[in-house]
Design goal:
Keywords: Metal-binding, Prenyltransferase, Repeat, Transferase, Zinc. Belongs to the protein prenyltransferase subunit beta family. The protein is an all-alpha fold. The chain is built from 15 helices and no strands. The longest helix has 16 residues. 51% of the residues are buried. The chain binds zinc ion. The site of zinc ion (ZN) has 5 residues, from loops.
């Protein structure tokens, strides 16, 4: 892999430019966030009909999560300085409810997905001290059910994605003691399939996105002993197709966002050498818009912030030159994770 093939400066400009196009539409919002405040239907190149189910679910929560994708990408490319961070912090805080949970935007309902993104954004900006950690943690803890699973909000939908959100969020806030971790782990383990993968609920089919959530949660809680690493590693490395890209399930097309979900899981279970890393990096680089910046799901498709983030994060996991290292379990820069756990945990060294 050669440095210079990644159009880093163009991707930074793409993320910052989308906001400029939209700046005429809404004058009252902080510059960077204008992109994220538009209704989903107005977002650039979001065609959820065409997308995989898991991705459609991930895209649904575009506003607060969009802040996380955009800002993390800028951080990994050494350009967080291009954003007015105080404005971001005050917008994030305006999305918080009395319950302690965060909404995807001002005036919307809180959800565990937005709550994790809000906490990740504040961690990224090194501003966790603006939070009442107890209050946020109590909101998350109240979403745990008797069987150890987590609901996404007060309406009760259950999914292993929410287990990951809860565990990651509480770990960042140093409040895992507020939930029953053993039950949470047992529930995740109950979603394990005979193929070594994990689904969204017990008995549901294995999917790379859910596998990332389950493996990430098990890694954070020190419970990877429940994973058959060879069996799961085999399923994950079979996701690599001829072009070098990764898909989310058998028979599906490759997609840049799976560079994150599959790759991070393989790194956590120490089986990343089972795929062809150079071919994967080439696939991601082929998905760049080399003229205007941004990364798409597949070569020559339209670019968006979601795939730009997952492409850059994937290249970070592949140790592409010039990109900061990202932690595969917390989905935050390694610098940030070390800062959060300095003095509390052994410094994480996924990169040997
Ligand atoms: Zn995708």
């Amino acid at each position: 892999m050669e440095a210079g093939e990644l159009e880093a400066e163009k991707h930074v400009r793409f993320i910052l430019a989308v906001e400029k196009v939209l700046s005429s539409l809404e004058r009252s919002r902080p510059l960077f966030l204008r992109l994220l405040l538009l209704p989903l239907s107005n977002q650039p190149s979001v065609d959820s009909q065409r997308k995989d189910d898991f991705e459609a679910l991930a895209m649904e929560h575009l506003r607060m999560n969009g802040a996380y994708w955009g800002l993390t990408t800028l951080y990994l490319l050494h350009r967080l300085d291009a954003v007015d961070l105080d404005e971001v912090v005050s917008w994030v805080l305006e999305c918080q409810h009395e319950s302690g949970g965060f909404a995807g935007n001002i005036g919307h309902d809180p959800h565990i997905l937005y709550t994790l993104s809000a906490v990740q954004v504040l961690a990224l900006l090194d501003k966790l001290d603006v939070l009442d950690a107890d209050k946020v943690s109590n909101y998350v803890a109240r979403l745990q059910n008797e069987d150890g699973s987590f609901s996404g909000d007060e309406w009760g939908e259950i999914d292993t994605r929410f287990s990951y959100c809860a565990i990651c969020c509480l770990s960042i806030l140093h409040h895992l003691d507020k939930i029953n971790v053993e039950k949470a782990v047992n529930y995740i383990v109950s979603c394990k399939n005979l193929d070594g993968g994990f689904g969204c609920t017990p008995g549901a089919e294995s999917h790379a996105g859910q596998i990332f959530c389950c493996i990430g949660a098990l890694a954070i809680t020190g419970s990877l002993n429940h994973v058959d690493k060879d069996l799961l590693g085999w399923w994950l490395c079979e996701r690599q197709v001829k072009s070098g890209g990764l898909n989310g399930r058998p028979e599906k097309l490759p997609d840049v966002c799976y560079s994150w979900w599959v790759l991070s899981s393989l790194i956590i279970i120490d089986r990343v050498h089972w795929i062809d890393k150079n071919k994967l990096a080439r696939f991601i680089l082929d998905c760049q818009d080399k003229e205007n910046g941004g990364i798409s799901d597949r070569p020559d498709d339209a670019v968006d912030v979601f795939h730009t983030y997952f492409g850059v994060a994937g290249l970070s996991l592949l140790e592409y030159p010039g990109i900061k290292a990202i932690d595969p379990a917390y989905a935050l820069p390694v610098d940030t994770v070390n800062k959060i756990f300095f003095g509390r945990l052994i410094v994480r060294t996924w990169r040997s």
